[in-house]
Amino acid sequence: MDTPKRSLVTANRVLAREGVLDAFGHVSLRDPADAGRFFLSRSLAPELVDEVDILDFDLTSQPVTPTEQALYSERVIHGAIYRARPDVMAICHHHAPPLLPFCLADLKLQVVTQLGATIGKQVPIWDQRDEFGATNHLVVREDEAASLARCLGSHSIVLMKRHGATVVGSSIEELAFRSIYSCRDAELQLRAMTYGPIDAFSDAEIDLAARYPAATLARAWHYWRTRAATV
Description:
Elements (H helix, E strand, L loop, with lengths): L3 H14 L8 E5 L6 E5 L12 E5 L17 H9 L5 E5 L5 H5 L20 E2 L1 H5 L9 H11 L4 E4 L3 E6 L2 H22 L9 H7 L4 H14 L4
Parallel strand pairs: 5-6
Antiparallel strand pairs: 1-2, 1-4, 2-3, 4-7, 6-7
């Protein structure tokens, strides 16, 4: 069985391999032995992350052991959400192309496939400009990250205007599943819209479809980690 840090390495490579992350974006895991800490790589392209790159952070998003290594500037996103959401065990912030149209245009992200039900019934949209005016759209301050966490609320995904998305999960496997299938569902929605109005899932159908057994997550995780050659 993988250690937590090894699982985080796997998640970095899986999400890069499946097109959610590229040179940018980052994924973290709450320390299962200490809810007041989380694991996150030093500043590095996710596909290149290895265990030696994983650092321990407290919930103020500061490294537990001081380091001179470059750190992700938006790591405050992770600390703020872990503080606000005790149920969250893993977080991914990304800029995947299939979701960006929903951050740029007046489009509502909806569930259009059974696996896409992992998105949930509602996806809030956070606009940094509303509260903080003109910025470079990076979330680098604690007050910005806290605002994003409030907008996320109890939901599973928050879209960030002109920026990207932040996804949460109750495990690293659920996070990978949600991050990947929300992007695939978004891509299918966009493609279907070129043919006409879409027929999305109802709230009741989303509730039913999203009851994924543990075996479903395990099956997908095993497939993705094998593809990413991280067994």
